[in-house]
Design goal:
The protein has nine helices and seven strands; from the N terminus they run αββαβααββαααββαα. The chain folds into two domains: 2-99, Arc Repressor Mutant, subunit A, CATH 1.10.10.10; 108-199, Arc Repressor Mutant, subunit A. With 200 residues, the protein is of the alpha+beta class. A three-stranded antiparallel beta sheet has the order 3-5-4. It has helices spanning 2-23, 37-57, 66-73, 77-85, 108-124, 131-138, 142-155, 169-183, 191-199, and strands spanning 27-30, 33-36, 64-65, 90-93, 96-99, 158-162, 165-168. The N and C termini lie far apart (86 Å). The longest helix has 22 residues, at 2-23. The radius of gyration is 27 Å and the shape is elongated. Strand 1 and strand 2 form a beta hairpin. Helix 2 crosses helix 3.
């Protein structure tokens, strides 16, 4: 009880000291954790450095997974979330994060590849080439193709069917219309009937 009384007697003084340090921006408080401003600035600088490097290495990716950034910094998740939420130069989109100035943009070479992919898949119709086949036909590295396909899907020119297959938006809409027409006449579709539709 004596110890408890001694601690309680000092709580107001401790709180006053904390408030003073917060007003002077000496510390940042998150729940019951105090972080020195130097540590906060160091963490934020680390986030900037990590994201800058990521954007340079992955110009076609919209952001870096938050957990990968946190893992590199080796800090508590709650503290990481609190600090990143307060950063004006960082944009958080679900589980991804990026620097606010960064925008995905295709180079002239990538734009040419995008056009070739659209032409290939449009001509293939309901039987599109797999990713491996596209990469081989266009002589592309798998990573480069993956980034371009994901970007095209995000922008809406392609629709992702599964991990290895994409179709154009126009082909997707044709499939939807064919299915609507089919089900306007019949209630059920057999697998064989669906295959016939996709091969005609």
């Amino acid at each position: 009880m004596l110890l408890e009384g001694w601690i309680n007697a000092d709580v107001p003084a401790i709180q006053d000291a904390i408030n003073t340090m917060r007003q002077r921006d000496t510390v940042v408080q998150h729940e019951n954790v105090l972080i020195h401003s130097d540590a906060v600035n160091s963490i934020r600088a680390g986030i900037d450095k990590i994201l800058n490097a990521f954007h340079k290495q992955n110009p076609l990716k919209t952001g870096m997974p938050k957990e990968e950034v946190r893992a590199q910094l080796k800090i508590d998740q709650k503290i990481f979330n609190a600090l990143t939420a307060a950063m004006n130069n960082v944009v958080i989109d679900k589980d991804l994060m990026r620097l606010s100035f960064f925008k995905v943009s295709l180079s002239e070479v990538d734009k040419g590849i995008e056009t070739k992919i659209l032409n290939m898949l449009e001509q293939a119709g309901f039987q599109p080439q797999l990713k491996e086949e596209i990469a081989k036909a266009l002589n592309l590295q798998q990573k480069q193709l993956d980034d371009i396909l994901k970007l095209m899907a995000k922008q809406g020119s392609l629709v992702r069917v599964n991990e290895t297959m994409y179709i154009t938006k126009a082909v997707y809409e044709k499939i939807i219309n064919v299915l609507k027409n089919f089900f306007s006449k019949k209630k059920e579709m057999k697998v064989a009937e669906f295959r016939v539709i996709l091969t005609t």
